[in-house]
Amino acid sequence: DEMKGRIIGRQGRNIRAIEQATGVDLVVDDTPEAILISSFDPVRREVARIALSKLVADGRIHPARIEKEVERAQQEVDHVILEAGEQALIETNTQGLHREIQKLIGRLKYRTSYGQNQYYHAMETAYLAAVIASELHADVKTARMGG
Question: Topology of domain 2-146, per CATH?
């Protein structure tokens, strides 16, 4: 409860700063040791989660520090996204995709559909497309990139 009060801050200034910096809504209710991070964008939720975790661990929570931690969390998530995109291309043996497409593939790491992670689903699709193309004597590279 004391930490929730510090996250909210005087007159709600800290919680407003977090929400404004991350673009998410924070829901603070009576649930012990829990704050709900609400957003349709899973990347924003992850940035908010990382920043909030670091702020709580450190204990110093004020608007200037919030902005700094959100910026660090955004850089960390951007790095993870790019690494995930590059790793997907390596695992599917695909080369020559533009860096922005790699980032889009990496962002899939934070998306799910019907409980399935879209990042892994996209890689499975690439594998299956390549196998089907091979069986049909079609262009495997093009099928893999399309998958």
Answer: Ribosomal Protein S8; Chain: A, domain 1 (3.30.1370)
Virtual CA dihedral for 97, 100, 106, 111, nearest 10 degrees? -120
How much is the pLDDT for 34? Answer: 87
Give the model confidence (pLDDT) of 77-110 as tens digits. Answer: 999 999 999 999 999 888 888 999 999 999 999 9
Distance CA 121, CA 135 (A): 21
Residue 82's DSSP bridge partners are none
- Whole-prediction pTM value? 0.86
The secondary element (H helix, E strand) that includes residue 36 is: strand 36-38
The runs of H, that is alpha helices, within 1-146 are 2-8, 13-22, 42-58, 63-91, 99-107, 118-135, 140-146
- pLDDT of res. 97: 84
Report the percent of the chain where pLDDT is more than 70: 100
